[in-house]
DNA sequence: CTAAATGCAAAACGTTTGCATATAG
DNA sequence: CTATATGCAAACGTTTTGCATTTAG
């Protein structure tokens, strides 16, 4: 069963309806699996396929998909949210290096995180959301550019 | 030398001017040292002291203070930024547990973070900003409320 | 004296909402 | 057939900007 089919059946098994708009959005998300898309970016791609679609629908759909745990949502310093497929990709935990200059996201994973999550859980009774920790800073590329 | 005096002299030694508005903002920040204030919250307190002040000035001042490394800036999922004094408080690194339900911030510190920062730095050439890592999730209080 | 800072209002930004119309189940 | 979803435009809350006026250095 492909990722696409998997998501489609998740929607069908939920109380939400499977509309053509939602199908198209799933398709785009699967095709851009490796990227972290914002609502606006998704909308732009969508416009090329179906110009009638409204931006509000994109936001509503992303909300629903987040609710259905199809998507993970990462939020920036500038108030922009980016979305990423949750299914299949993470067999374990994964976390994000967020560059505050170019806004690129790198997904990383390491045992250290497990220790950290356990520590936070034990000491603070804090339940880490979706095992997602955000590390803000400057990425390799932007560091190099600074030194030109 | 008090935290207040320290900040004032940081401003004086910079290219920015020390205005009465900026002095008042420093005073409020020092008095609320233990809190993470938003621009709006700071503006509200400020209005009680000097009703003439404009919200734009608050934003501009917070930007400058961030630039001067007087403040650290933590941003939420809902696009609201909160500010916190950087000076004196952290002899070492410190990080944040951000509750996505009540939006409370807990400041934590632990050796595990140092290892993590080092790892990210070595493996990804990623320079962690102000040694600040954001861990999103649900805090103790909100967890309890869910179970009522 | 002059460059920088201020207050105000208007604009910008991503996002959400109200509503009439369309449609999946 | 009916509850849900859609597209549009208007509203939202936070933040930024333009501009004439004031002020710190």
* Helix proportion of chain A: 40-55%
Which band does the percent of strand residues of chain A land in? 15-25%
**Structure summary, number of beta strands of chain A:** 6
- What class would the helix/strand composition of chain A place it in? alpha+beta
Question: What does this molecule look like?
Answer:
2 copies of one chain form a homodimer. Chain A has 148 residues and is of the alpha+beta class. Chain A is built from 6 helices and 6 strands. Chain A has helices at 3-13, 20-31, 39-49, 55-67, 111-124, 140-146; strands at residues 37-38, 71-75, 81-85, 95-99, 105-108, 127-138. In chain A, strands 1-3-2 form a 3-stranded antiparallel beta sheet. The first copy, chain A, has a 3-stranded mixed beta sheet with strand order 5-4-6. In chain A, a hairpin with a 5-residue loop joins strand 2 (71-75) and strand 3. In chain A, helix 1 (3-13) runs antiparallel to helix 2, helix 2 (20-31) packs across helix 3 (39-49) and helix 3 crosses helix 4 (55-67). Chain A is globular, with a radius of gyration of 17 Å. Chain A binds chain B through residues 73, 75-79, 81, 97, 99-100, 106, 108, 110, 112-113, 115-116, 119-120, 123-129, 132-140, 143, and chain B through 73, 75-79, 81, 97, 99-100, 106, 108, 110, 112-113, 115-116, 119-120, 123-129, 132-140, 143. Strand 6 (127-138) of chain A pairs antiparallel with strand 6 of chain B. Chain A binds a DNA duplex (25 and 25 nucleotides) through residues 15-19, 21-22, 38-40, 52-57, 59-61, 78-81.
